[in-house]
Design a protein that fits this description.
single chain, about 110 residues, alpha+beta, Alpha-Beta Plaits, four-stranded antiparallel beta sheet, 2 helices, about 30% helix, Dimeric_a/b-barrel, Transcription initiation protein
Length: about 110
Amino acid sequence: MAKYLISFPSEAFVVSDDELPMIDTDSHAVIEEAKRAGVYVFGGGIDESVAPVLVSADGAVSSRIYPGSRINGGFAVLELPTREAAVEWAAKLAAACRCSQELRVFGFDPAS
């Protein structure tokens, strides 16, 4: 089985304040379904109020991150048997979050 990252950038999440309670309920229901199915690994959202930093090998910290780097929004990591199953879960999350989801697979690392 492979681990899949299902995510959306914050700029894709364009909803009204009135929709937020239902989106919260619907998205948490999908996550609870994934937990019951035994496929949930972890998930959440990037805290965009905390600026990212770049840490070098000597421990130096810089506010200058890689050019073009952007990680924000919400995500879930699920462990699934097939890409088709990952697409199904991504569609469930897209419906619950009211925005399309990006789907990526993690490369297998036998030491992890």
